[in-house]
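URGENT: need a sanity check before tomorrow's submission.

F., can you look over the ABC transporter ATP-binding protein record below? I want to be sure the sequence and structure line up before it goes out.
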Amino acid sequence: MAVSVAQRLSAAGTANALELRGVTRMFGALAALTDVSLTVRPGERRAVLGSNGAGKTTLFNCITGDFLPTLGTIRLFGEDVTEFPAYERIRRGLRRTYQISLLFTGLSVLDNIYLACRGVSRGRFSLIRPRRNEALMHSAEQLATAVHLIDVRDTKVAELSYGQQRQLEIALALAGAPRFILFDEPAAGLSPTERRELIEILTNLPAHIGYIIIEHDMDVALRVSESVTMMHNGRIFKEGRPSEIESDPEVQELYLGGGHG
Ligand SMILES: Nc1ncnc2c1ncn2[C@@H]1O[C@H](COP(=O)(O)OP(=O)(O)OP(=O)(O)O)[C@@H](O)[C@H]1O
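Structure tokens as predicted:
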């Protein structure tokens, strides 16, 4: 059952989930991001849209700590994480999915999720070969259910459809105790049926989990978000509700009309 925005926000505490102030990222002389300021409330679900080269992936890389910004600050749940390495941000509840698959294709669905749960749990660096942890196994099964893969939990990942593999990636991002997830084009390459399933999975994520979704499929992006940020040439040029963005003439000209690659 879908949860209202108000329910999600009240479930999620007070500090902003994410706050970027004046973030600029240079690659030599090229500004991939210029003076980007962005606030995402706890539990908020936001789409970031823009044509190829707009700076969306660079934005994700700065938020995760894969790249440091050249200028500006990034706060995660009220804490300045601008200089933090990626793993410190993961410890604070940040997760990310990638456009390319990072799955263990020779292992089962459940083993993949179990390993992700173990990877973010205490004792993951133990030198003693661990016994199966029943609590983590239970969490893994719950996540398999959340992404509609419980019926294929013992199937090897290599035998899954492409869409099911993308669903599994979402389960991996949900391992541990995520509070904020960055989804990088989760609908890319999906069939219409798989897209509908993706929309259902994202819509029904736990109330306190906010996210940013980069998505070229406008239909998916606007249906799973309550706010939209439009980027162009490394800058934010428009923010609004999905209905406002969809009907905005400038957006239509730049993005929906031929500007989108
Ligand atoms: N590691 C890098 N080194 C040099 N230039 C880069 C690097 N990463 C990105 N860029 C440049 O920064 C700009 C923004 O790229 P970015 O990948 O963030 O855009 P995007 O909106 O994610 O595009 P797409 O939709 O094609 O993935 C582009 O001009 C790109 O060529």
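My own read: Residues 103-176 form one domain. Residues 134-146 form the longest helix (13 residues). If you see anything odd, call me.
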